Amino acid sequence: MTESRPEAVSTVQINNEAVVVTEWRFPPGAETGWHRHTRDYVVVPQTDGNLLMETRDQEVIAELAAGRSYFRNKGVEHNVVNDNEHEFVFIEIEVKTG
Known about the structure:
single chain, mainly beta, Jelly Rolls, 5-stranded antiparallel beta sheet, 4-stranded antiparallel beta sheet, 9 strands, 0% helix, globular
């Protein structure tokens, strides 16, 4: 990261034996910070827009639509950045079982 960005705000909604469900709110330009998931997970965008997905190898702009979910496997180290001039919100569902 070469610039100072605001932090995305996470709110855990459910944490039980099966899943962790977290709401993520990103002001314009906000980021999650570098992290690695230890569980497979599903992201459900609540708004339309673009997220910048940074990995150690590349940067990719993901065009997301509200209600259009996607799945990711655990293990990839990454940082997620709101690449919009409006707030971006998504729900993240980490799977504990299976």
